[in-house]
Amino acid sequence: YGFYGAPSGRSFGSMLTLTSLRVAYGKKIVLKDVSLTVAPGEILAVIGPNGAGKTTLIRAVSGTLSLEAGQVQVKGRDVANLTVAQRARLLAVVPQARQMGGAYSVQQAVMMGRTAYMGWLGQESEADRSVVQLALQQTHLEDFAERSIAQLSGGEQQRVLLARALAQATPALLLDEPTNHLDLQHQASLLSLVKKLTKENNLAVMMAIHDLNLVSFFADKVALLVEGRLKHFGTPRDVLQAEHLGEAYQTQVDVVEHPLTGAPMIFPRDMLDTRK
Question: Against a cut of 0.85, is the pTM above it?
Answer without folding.
Answer: yes
